[in-house]
Amino acid sequence: MSLELQGVSAGYGAGDVLHEISLDVRPGEVVVILGANGAGKTTLMRAVSGVIPRRGRILFEGKDISRTGPEQIVRLGLAQVPQGRGTFVDLTVEENLRTGALSRRDSARVNEDLDRWYTTYPRLAERRRQKAGLLSGGEQQMLAVSRAMMSRPRLLLCDEPSLGLSPRLTQELFASLRSINEEWDMSMLIVEQNAAIALGIATRGYLLEVGTIARAGSADELSDSDAVRAAYLGY
Ligand code: ATP
């Protein structure tokens, strides 16, 4: 198993937002978490990446990371594309990419990886010396994905990658997530409100409602489910 959550609860002090969540991501799978505003999707990502305290068990490749801090979790091979892009706006594009590789010692291969992401996203190459804050929303999202990939993760967490993007850029971004999944056999856990597009690249999914898993199934099962259709697909 790439990632396994067993009865995970978490919140912000005033009470739990997540109640005993159990889910898993198998190697090479793209798993999507669907849910309305406030369902707890971002909180779930924060619990996995170690930025908020959580109870229950979280296993990454069989290793218990329930009490591991966020930096160590990245070092273990689990990287996050945070919501709202989370790039360092005052650093250049290249400096942002290099922050993704801070835990790596293989500097020659870091440079190779930089070139690789510049080839994948030529718009980043053209703007490599510009401050990230000057990039468009779509470019910042590409930067956030590439930066996470610069740590050479084995599991990528993406929190609402489509947020603030036009439909065309959302399509482009999901197409590139799909190719990252295929080329690198990258396991992914994606939180997304845009159910149609996320289910289009997902293997499986979970529906989160007020902090609990209301439904789980293959991408096809969820697309066919009346509950998902009515609430998230609009038909
Ligand atoms: P959205 O799609 O709107 O981002 P979400 O499913 O990601 O929603 P969360 O951001 O996880 O939902 O929020 C779940 C609940 O936790 C909400 O009721 C929210 O008000 C609360 N919450 C989120 N962040 C904090 C925080 N830093 N402090 C206190 N409460 C928070």
Over the alpha carbons, how many angstroms does the gyration radius reach?
17 Å
Give the CATH superfamily: P-loop containing nucleotide triphosphate hydrolases
Sheet bearing the most strands, described?
A: 6 strands, mixed
Cα separation of the termini: 34 Å
What count of helical segments does DSSP give? Answer: 10
Strand order of the largest sheet: 6-7-8-3-9-10
Structural domains: how many: 1
From the 3D structure, determine the CATH topology. Answer: Rossmann fold
Mean pLDDT: 92
Globally, the shape reads globular
CATH architectural category: 3-Layer(aba) Sandwich
What compounds are bound to the protein? adenosine-5'-triphosphate
**Helical percent range?**
40-55%
The low-confidence parts are none
Order of helices and strands: EEEHEEHEHHHHEHEHEEHH
Top-tier CATH class: Alpha Beta
Please identify the structural class as seen in this structure: alpha/beta
Give the DSSP E fraction (strand runs of 2 or more residues). 25-35%
β-strand number: 10
Family: Belongs to the ABC transporter superfamily.
Keywords: Amino-acid transport, ATP-binding, Nucleotide-binding, Transport
Protein name: ABC transporter ATP-binding protein
Domain ABC transporter: 3-235
